[in-house]
Write a structure and sequence with these properties.
By secondary structure, the chain is mainly α. The chain has helices at 8-27, 30-46, 57-74, 87-93, 102-109, 112-120, 124-135, 140-147, 151-175. The protein is built from nine helices and no strands.
Length: 178
């Protein structure tokens, strides 16, 4: 297993930014993303001995993060509209990709803040799928595992989410908002 760090601390250093970015796209509040990222790693630490390597460590962490964020959103304290803020922090949390996909090149060609603003204005499922596939570069198999859907459904939902994003960005360009 090449993605398993030597220590738990190594795992945290390697995956903290990616988990934070993913959680942020779900909850859209940096202070909540901070707390839920910490909670994700606490849960991972508590269940470290249960990690069997059936999926990549990254997939396992993102699954824990998704559950933590979903639990948070279900709580009565956040059943109100959460405004978008702090797109710059999300943009800075990403790292350069080695082999960019066509979608990554498309995103790199536009203004990062506007893209993340558009992504964060999409529905939760669309935000999750785009973040995991584009920013975290999960395979469709890994994406399906994190979202608890079939691989085929992951592909379909991803392509639909990308089309929604392209439509939204195109509408903003045509209206002069971008």
């Amino acid at each position: 297993m090449t993605d398993v760090p030597v220590t738990f601390a190594d795992m945290m250093r390697q995956h903290w930014k990616g988990v934070w970015s993913f959680v942020y796209t779900i909850v859209r509040r940096s202070e909540v993303a901070d707390d839920l990222t910490q909670e994700t790693f606490i849960r991972a630490y508590q269940h470290w001995g249960e990690y069997r390597g059936e999926s990549s460590l990254k997939t396992w962490l993102f699954t824990i993060a998704k559950h933590a964020a979903t639990d948070h959103l279900r709580s009565a304290a956040v059943r109100r509209l959460i405004p978008f803020s702090n797109a710059n922090r999300v943009a800075r949390a990403s790292e350069k990709r080695h082999k960019p996909s066509a979608e990554s090149e498309f995103f790199d060609g536009l203004h990062v803040n506007e893209i993340w603003s558009a992504i964060l204005s999409l529905g939760q499922v669309d935000r999750e799928i785009i973040t995991l596939r584009v920013r975290e570069e999960l395979s469709f198999r890994e994406l399906a595992k994190v979202l608890n859907i079939s691989e085929g459904n992951a592909r379909v939902q991803y392509h639909r989410a990308i089309q929604k994003l392209k439509d939204k960005l195109q509408a903003e360009v045509l209206s002069g908002e971008l």
